[in-house]
């Protein structure tokens, strides 16, 4: 019985697809499937993956050989329980990244540590915020993930909150979430702590460039639905 | 604490020291990486200034690396967009999407009978359905003003992923100078495609949030999950 329904729906869908094949940039499919409820949607579904803010699990969970995967555990944890489970590990990970560059710079890892970022967040607070992996989006405000180039209050520094900002209101495909993230991790209070500075003016950078990965949007996006470019 | 969590931001910069991986969520964990349930990315935004709609984009799978699963929606995978209205980080509304026979069916938004890790399809609250596109976008707009899309699209994520792996490597001679300057850096995701599900929905159908972000602005707190039929 179910197979018959499947077949009929498939045939209808195929025919409509052919009918809509015109030369316009988009094909509008006006058919609401009257047979929708006869398609089989029964069963129980168990969670396999989770995503809120881009890259949280990817970047701050750390799997060690021989241990149960933290990354897998993160994908199977509900957001209200995430901070208790993952904040401490995230904070350790953040510090570990600084140790890597201390060694590359020939410095004692104990002397190169995370510094409060442009938002004034210490490592514990930043990782507490990030460990609850949800994406906030405002229904009634423009979407601003973050603009790391804006000096909101014209004090010569970027990203110093002065109370009237609109931010944290969603994420657009064009947002450079990598650079924002790098600035928060490695930028320190001015946002440029490790940005390839040439300290002795000899034409060679003395500090690593960690606050931008140097790339920008390359994909086609659109201002109209569905907002993403046709596949390449 | 509340004051100090101003600008809670998405992070995507860093990764495990010794493992190869891809951000944003592309291949984020061993059990989901490369499967038909792997969530590559998630976007939520106001489509234009002053709009009363919200757009949700879910990208599943990606062909950023040649061996990744990519190309079709798995009928055993239920995608859920979760929306928390009151800030307790438990979903108050869900929008569901699942493929059947070349079409993507959408349900909700509805209050889930059961929150958490187990789901069922809420067939009592159909939202609409749309033929799964090939390269040309097929768009359905329902009488309620909801726009629906499902199909392959360009993966808009951008990141110099290979330089990133060099940056985080503990080898002392691996990228001591960090990332490359613009012009030398390469977007690893240039040319990659993904399987996208896009929903544009009037805010009135989602409800009015009482949750606020760290700046005190009213926000939906949202996340996406994939769930496999048992």
Automatic annotation (TrEMBL), chain A:
This is DUF4331 domain-containing protein.
Automatic annotation (TrEMBL), chain B:
The keyword Signal applies. Keywords: Signal. It comes from the Bacteria. Residues 1-23 form the signal peptide. InterPro entries: DUF4331. The keyword Signal applies. This is DUF4331 domain-containing protein. It comes from Flagellimonas aequoris.
